[in-house]
Amino acid sequence: MKNRRNIFALMLLVFIVISCNKDVLKPSDLIHWVENEENGLVERQEFEHYFFEAKYKPIDYVIAIEGRTDELKQDDYSNLKSELEGLQYVDLNIGPLTTQGNALSAGIQDNEEYFERLDYFVTYANQDIFMVQGQDTLLPKLYHFERNYGLAPKNSLLLGFDQGEKEQDRAVYIDDQVLSVGRVKFLFKNTDIQSTPTLKIN
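Below the sequence we write its predicted structure tokens.
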């Protein structure tokens, strides 16, 4: 029992030290920090014909995007945070490596195949995506497929998951059904998530 208390006290101390040492960044700098692949919150995988890229989005990052200013006020921050809390957010981008088009149109044989892919991503793909966090397996509570009508060489899936076991890594899976890729896994380490700088508020 005493050893357990000592371990808990040590873990609490480490958490406090990490929290106190976090950088505080203005919104535009926090956006760049999260989107820098070296910081562990963006992971890209390439297959024979397609790439899959996932980005884990801490709440302060989403607020920085939504706030649209480096002069974010406390009231605006609080309002946005109250709307976003309760979920953890991930963007999943999918696109072709070499051919023209995007995930819907690249390599298709006819319009029927295009509409089959569209129907899958709009209606069914959320059933093939999940997050494993410790002992928890989480299905998307929020799912939105962004149609870009050929204006970008990728398609984006915006995902929101419930909060799972705290202090656990997050593994995000997609079991692709239309691009012949199969299961794709992205791993986001809890240490990388916890080391995300906080947002500077005016």
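The helical segments are 2-20, 27-35, 59-67, 74-84, 111-124, 190-194.
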